[in-house]
């Protein structure tokens, strides 16, 4: 049984159910919290840390995408400290991969690029890592450019949770982590991939794209996902 | 098995032990084994055979004596003589002098204080119980606490005893064990789990390994008592695969306990069931974090997830789960057997009992020690540890592994407990204690721990995955004499950010070695950056000097 609760976000009184997350309640009330790994329709993992918020009485910052609301919570979604951390997180993502917007298929339609605007960064203070990462163009419809991957694992989750295939997964630790196909093989050789293209549509950057798209031509539409999920849920319940 | 049967096994075993005039225990801990204590045991056995003393003299395997630096070690009972650095060729002399005064040559008076200043609770049977024989453990009152709990106490009473004892988690954070147990006890579910976290991975730490190798039955007994208290029917011991001896002995101990009806269904003739299995880790440090450990047990990739929900509410396979560290479980049986009042008599006001430390680094008596909470660092380093070798001077002591801090000379007199170590910018951690002298460069030390965190980060959250790599690069620049003061400012900024924003303890703790060395040894950082000079002479920055000149 769920209960309804009232709480404060940025000093505004809001209400919610006690199984809803801070992010859900904030969005219902048009309060903006930046996110990258979160996508409506997918399970949340709290990995990108952009949605961290301050909660009164708790000295730890908590991810709004996974923390459920409680009666009387007082939440702050923006502060100089949070703004600084968010800027650093986005900087880290730019420094970690090889993001060259001017030659990217997703230029102008990229969630990472948008996020840089949102958190207002105009340069990178951190040292670029210039990693050597592999490109996989062996699939006949899609390509994977790991240089643009931010390891949000949306592709892994959509393939597992929605398509039910689990072609995608992760390999390696720490800064060496990368997304892989099946047992780390070329995409085109995958026996499990159904070529549904959901991973491409949910990818926030130009890491996954349709073949034949030139610079700035790859637009994505992940809005099908919540629709798909809600249709599926409504079929399930009697 | 009921109490009478257990008692009978104990009496039979004690009678068997009394037949022998002498019982020799050869340490079979990993340290002594590496020094070929197995060969020492073989030659002692051969010597006993040769002299036809088999009925009078028993040669047995014993657990770790603690003074690993002096291995292989042999204990002679009932005299209690302790021989150090025993070689296979010493066997004849050892056997020959059993009824005479001990061999001076194999004893070392200077290490006496190593043993005298310790208080052994978890390691109290050190060296005198064969870890591979359940009878040995039963003869030493083993499993009596489990049967006492099952037959004389309600689960609530067990939890009450643990709460009253003030026992805190020995994994590092010091969370009150009683509180954790009662939370899991209160959770409503048909199935609950008890997990022993034996994924010890801190550099230089080997406490849990020793406890698992030497006291597998004590851990099983503690877990069974915990399972009874919280209402669990299944358990896992999560051990890293790098500890093959611990895995072997725990496996053997589980089978022995099952055979004796101390694990499985209807334990002690009661309606209590508890099934225990071993799960091996694949060497990922992050799997010591409880949610990552649970993911690993479930067969998934060992990555942490945000808490809440805490494992007490939703753990293995979504069921309420109690996770405690090896050493925590190893304390349980004695608290139940001897009562919480006995336990609260040891330690400080907020930290009760003893703590095992793996004492390593620039110290004379490196090894495994168990000390009462409230002892000072000075006593540990100078009285038990025997001071710094080669007349060098003490510089700092590092506790808490890769998420711990370094404490300089002025902190030598603080007492060892959870609160005061935290106040000094470090923390208790699982028990690694690394001593450093004047030849250690603190920037280099910080870089070492950062490299560890960088390679052990699971890569899930951005601050830990990228932040540790960025901080490592900056530290590397400093040790190469290529850094500027701006780099230092960036390093400090990253430390604060990674600490505050990372998902789990690995990332949150990764900046602590840097922060603590910056707090106490900032001048060393500045020497590297401004003067292009390493005061300890560890970092090679001459090449950089040439290029800047």
What is the class of the largest domain in chain B in the CATH system?
A: Alpha Beta
Q: What share of the residues of chain B does DSSP label as strand, in percent?
A: 5-15%
CATH class label of the largest domain in chain A: Alpha Beta
- The fourth-level CATH homologous superfamily of the largest domain in chain B is NADH-ubiquinone oxidoreductase 51kDa subunit
Order of helices and strands of chain A: EEHEEEHHEEHEEHEH
Largest sheet descriptor of chain B: 5 strands, mixed
- The unreliable regions of chain B are none
SS-derived structural category of chain B = alpha/beta
Secondary-structure arrangement, i.e. CATH architecture of the largest domain in chain A: 2-Layer Sandwich
Describe the 3D structure.
- The complex is a heterodimer of chains A (238) and B (549).
- By secondary structure, chain A is an alpha+beta fold.
- Chain A has six helices and ten strands.
- The longest helix of chain A is centred in the middle third of the chain and has 17 residues, at 80-96.
- The relative contact order of chain A is 0.14.
- Chain B has four domains: 19-116, Glutaredoxin (3-Layer(aba) Sandwich), CATH 3.40.30; 141-344, NADH-ubiquinone oxidoreductase 51kDa subunit (Rossmann fold, 3-Layer(aba) Sandwich); 354-437, Ubiquitin-like (UB roll) (Roll); 442-548, Up-down Bundle (de novo design (two linked rop proteins)).
- In chain B, the strands form three sheets. A five-stranded mixed beta sheet of chain B has the order 10-9-13-11-12. Chain B has a four-stranded mixed beta sheet with strand order 2-1-3-4, covered by helices on one side. Chain B has a four-stranded parallel beta sheet with strand order 7-6-5-8, with helices on both faces.
- In chain B, helix 7 crosses helix 14 and helix 18 packs antiparallel against helix 19.
- The chains are: A alpha+beta (238), B alpha/beta (549).
- The interface between A and B is medium-sized, with 35 and 31 residues.
